[in-house]
Amino acid sequence: MSQETSRNIGPIVLLGPPGAGKGTQSKRIMEHYLIPQVSTGDILRYNVAQGTDLGLAAKAVMARGELVSDDLVCNMVLERLRQPDCKRGYILDGFPRTAAQAGWLDALLDSEFFDNTRPTRAWPIVIRLDVDYNKLLLRITGRRSCPACGRIYNVHFQLPRTDEICDFDGSKLVSRNDDRLEVIQPRLAAYQEQTRPVADYYERTGRLICVNGDQPMDEVTKQIYHIIEDRRA
Ligand code: AMP
Known about the structure:
The chain has helices spanning 3-6, 22-33, 40-50, 53-63, 70-81, 99-113, 119-122, 133-142, 181-204, 217-231, and strands at 10-15, 37-39, 89-93, 125-130, 143-145, 152-154, 208-212. By secondary structure, it is of the alpha/beta class. The chain contains ten helices and seven strands. The structure holds adenosine monophosphate (AMP). Residues 18, 40-41, 44, 61-62, 65-68, 73, 94-95, 97, 101, 178, 187 line the site of adenosine monophosphate.
């Protein structure tokens, strides 16, 4: 068994505003450490596309760029974290997004998931990606993703080899419904009002690590790996 499939990585929380690079970096961490990315946005979008009860409840809220209720999201996360592939660890992308969700996650990790006598599994590694506001707008409006493999591109910074086509599987790239200019503003406002307190919560408990997300993507990845190695040493 390779080192990466036998080592416990534990929970990793990636914080940052929409467009900060959480999705891109999560995919890299996932491939490097062989642990799943748990993106609440992706799970919600899947549910909307499938027309499930959860999707129906979330659809209009997401289209307005507002946050789905804590109850719905926490239940959804609980169900996902109980899957066997999360046993060695996972990357939370887009969760927790409110102070209530952060408190809920701590209580969960304390009670159910991780044995706190084993320090490598006890607490999430919390990393926030910081990006300049104007760059965020460019990143979000230029974002395109592959509906088949989920890889993310950008028409301003990270073009696919062939216009609007995924380099890996040839699918036609799509824009997210909530990446339109009129929805971006409320999403960034929701981040300022509801998600900033999450970072404050982790900062107060001495767990917040900030990474400059304005750096080249590979440099951001390198720093994240360094933090993970350092914390899980
Ligand atoms: P994202 O892909 O992370 O930007 O999320 C897209 C949308 O899904 C958000 O604008 C929210 O409407 C919803 N959403 C994602 N994660 C959460 C969460 N943790 N709490 C509440 N709503 C969420």
